[in-house]
Design brief:
This protein has an eight-stranded mixed β-sheet. It has a five-stranded mixed β-sheet with strand order 9-10-13-11-12, sandwiched between helices. Helix content is about 30%, strand content about 20%. The protein is elongated. It is an alpha+beta fold and about 600 residues long. Bound molecules: adenosine-5'-diphosphate and magnesium ion (MG). The site of magnesium ion (MG) has 5 residues, from helix 2. The site of adenosine-5'-diphosphate has 23 residues, from helix 2 and helix 4.
Length: about 600
């Protein structure tokens, strides 16, 4: 049999590798800005056109490159940052793999202009799909400018796979935020389609957070500053009263690099135990400084995952540091703290010295195909999509068939059911200020009051054919969002009008004015409400079947629903139960969580027999 194996040509290999390094414009932006930081720049400009599809340009005043380095930098495994395997344990630069530029050049037309500070002339290299088209001397400022044009020009499937501009731009913005937040000594600017979105000057971290998220953050945060042998933790944690409904504003950095680390995030969240309600999340912006030899940053090509040698100690330190910050600055929380359970920094277990860090490996996913998009398995079910044939009569009528817990929940109520069919003297009891219990034909019905109310409100808004009634505000309210978020909210304005909001964007700026809200809408902290709405919307649009109105109505329902923990009057409970019965999908909240549990007769009997 003849040989069938051949070595892939470089341009094909680079294009495949590029899929892992550059999957959307935001990843190219990240690599280029990180290179500029590694080059020691004090000023970095980012310019994008059409959310990076047409152009991504990063200009820095860093060290620049020599003529031959300017060609060599596009080769795979070309890096000036490590020379031998041992260097991997002492990485202080953002990059080190030497594959970013090779990957970008494989899938775009790139123009590089660079000049070292002690040279009179710079050099200009043009490269397209891995082939150098030209190199000639040019006059340019000291430093480096990369222009990446027509990203994915030779990978049309990938180009089509990109989301619409507003979503891609918000990814770029997120990447930009993650970088600029910990590089406060560097000035950054960010232009999109000729518009200046960010103009950040060198400053401290709190000022930088405020430059990015708005001045109001100065009052929302407590400082954290703790050092131990293992790690130094600095930054800010959100005050418990400014919790959010999503984990959006949780930023953890290790040695200047943004990371995702569920265990360490949990450590910070643990510090808020008993201070904030369930399903709400604190904001935090924390930088950890760790000896590079005690981390393995190399476990994922995009490098947001990190392994720590001293993970347990880090967990304890982080939680203690956050608790201390919250406790120290807030009177209310001091009472909550039990001093005997407080962790002392000097009690944190010492670092073991006989640990040898593992040799880092690069993980490629052999069957990775960037063009296959499978809907995330974590996607929650949302109302409206579930159909089952059980009838509500099984609760109230004389149906012989008994519902069993959850398995036969009626996900679909018959349209003709009305509240009149409910017994007007229906007995309802509130349990733990959270659940409504009612005795029905089918057994004991337990309803989660908040989820039920969210479902009711959600359907009222989602099913409304005409514009919903608005309630004029006494005084118009203004709020300001980040530039990309403003564009996203701009996309929602028409739907907001339909749902009873009178909201306008002021002269294409990032400020919005609200003059009316839906009836019964709580107008406190409208800014927070719209921030969350945009975060939800972003999340929703990332899903394959994301639906704008679903996202919007879900945000409104969350805001307007009675919350867990609120005591309800009998009449209110009866109303909720009656309204829930009229819903199309009463069994699920708009987030896809169960609303109702039924404990049928058999189960009740088993409970009484002690079987459950
Ligand atoms: P890495 O950053 O992992 O080394 P890259 O492919 O991103 O790999 O860059 C390759 C090399 O090109 C870098 O190691 C650096 O020497 C050089 N380089 C890239 N960008 C710049 C820049 N903006 N200024 C100076 N040198 C740069
Ligand atoms: Mg790099």
């Amino acid at each position: 049999m003849s040989d069938i194996i051949n070595i892939l040509p470089d341009n094909v290999a680079n294009q495949i590798a590029a899929g892992e390094v550059v999957d959307r414009p935001a990843s190219a932006v990240k690599e280029l800005i990180e290179n500029a930081i590694d080059a020691g720049a004090s000023t970095i400009q980012l310019i994008v056109k059409d959310a990076g599809r047409t152009l991504i340009q990063v200009i820095d005043n860093g060290c620049g490159m020599s003529d031959s380095d300017a060609r060599l930098c596009f080769e795979r495994h070309a890096t000036s940052k490590i020379h031998q395997a041992d260097d991997l344990f002492a990485i202080r630069t953002m990059g080190f793999r030497g594959e970013a530029l090779a990957s970008i050049a494989a899938i775009a037309q790139v123009e590089l202009k660079t000049r070292m500070h002690d040279e009179e002339l710079g050099t200009c290299v043009e490269i397209e799909g891995c082939t150098i088209k030209s190199q000639q001397p040019c006059s340019c400022s000291p430093g480096t400018s990369f222009s990446v044009k027509n990203l994915f020009f030779n990978v049309p499937a990938r180009r089509n796979f990109l989301k619409k501009d507003s979503i891609e731009l918000s990814h770029i913005e997120e990447v930009f935020r993650r970088i600029v937040m910990t590089h406060c000594d560097i000035s950054f600017s960010f232009h999109s389609n000729g518009k200046l979105l960010y103009d950040l000057h060198a400053c401290n971290m709190l000022q930088r957070i405020c430059q990015i998220f708005g001045q109001q953050y100065a009052e929302r945060l407590y400082p954290v500053d703790e050092s131990s042998d293992v790690v130094t933790v600095k930054g800010y944690v959100g005050k418990p009263e400014y919790v959010r409904k999503t984990r959006g504003e949780q930023y953890l950095f290790v040695n200047g690099r943004y990371i995702k680390h569920p265990a360490l995030s949990a450590a910070v969240e643990r510090a808020y135990t008993n201070l904030i309600p369930d399903r709400l999340y604190p904001s935090y912006f924390l930088t950890l400084s760790v000896d590079p030899s005690r981390i393995d940053v190399n476990i994922h090509p995009t490098k947001t995952e990190v392994k720590f040698v001293d993970e347990q100690a880090m967990f304890a330190i982080l939680r203690a540091a956050a608790r201390k910050a919250i406790g120290q600055f807030s009177l209310a929380t001091e009472i909550e703290f039990n001093p005997s359970t407080e962790i002392r920094f000097d009690e944190i277990p010492p670092v073991s010295n006989n640990y040898t860090p593992p040799i880092p490996t690069i993980n490629y996913t052999p069957n990775y195909n960037p063009f296959n998009e499978t809907p995330s398995s974590g996607t929650k079910r949302t109302g409206g999509s579930q159909r089952q044939t059980d009838k509500w009569e099984s609760f109230y009528g004389s149906s012989k068939k008994e519902s069993t817990v959850e398995a036969e929940l009626p996900l679909e109520a018959p349209k003709e059911t009305t509240s009149n069919e409910l017994p007007s003297d229906m007995v309802c009891l509130q349990v733990k200020n959270r659940y409504i219990a009612c005795a029905t034909q089918a057994g004991l019905l337990l309803i989660d009051q908040q989820r039920a109310h969210e479902r009711i409100i959600y359907e009222r808004f989602a099913n409304a054919e005409n514009d919903l009634p608005a309630q004029q505000l006494m005084f118009p309210l203004n709020f300001t969002l980040s530039p990309a978020d403003s564009d996203l909210l701009g996309e929602l304005v028409d739907d907001l009008h339909h749902n009873g909001f009178a909201i306008e964007r002021m002269d294409n700026s990032n400020t919005f004015v609200v003059t009316a809200t839906p009836a019964d809408f709580d107008e406190n902290d409208l800014q927070g409400f719209f921030e969350e709405m945009v975060t939800d919307y972003k999340g929703c649009m990332m899903q394959k079947f994301g639906d704008r109105n679903h996202s919007l109505c879900r945000s409104i329902a969350r805001r307007m629903a009675v919350k867990s923990g609120r005591e309800l009057k009998l009449q209110e409970m009866q109303q909720i139960v009656a309204d829930l019965m009229k819903c199309t999908s009463p069994a699920l909240s708009p987030d896809g969580d169960p609303v109702i549990a039924i404990v049928n007769e058999e189960r009740l009997a088993n409970i009484m027999k002690g079987k459950i």
